[in-house]
Amino acid sequence: MSEEQTPRRASVELLRAEAADELSVLVEERLRAGEDPWEFMEELPSVDELVVLMLRAENIAAYGGGRPSNARNYRVLRQIAMDHPELTRAVWRLLGSEPHRRWDAATRADAS
């Protein structure tokens, strides 16, 4: 097994269901705190983006948990796209040069 691959833990459908549940919890918590959904919904990742971030986190944890270099982060995300073609758009959005959501900048900073 190469450095970028980790054992698959579940199908993409199951991961999407988990991600959707997690996002719904986040939305409910923020609504209960009195936040305006028009203000915070753009800050949240899409379901597929959250799945990609979960898979990336599993890979990082499986290989020591250290902060990956930019090159390794790129390889890991590319491997996710190759292993799960249905997540390719989300991977490429996360690899894009310009953040398309407010949380992207923090995610990229953590990866570098």
UniProtKB/TrEMBL annotation:
<protein>
    <submittedName>
        <fullName>Tryptophan synthase subunit alpha</fullName>
    </submittedName>
</protein>
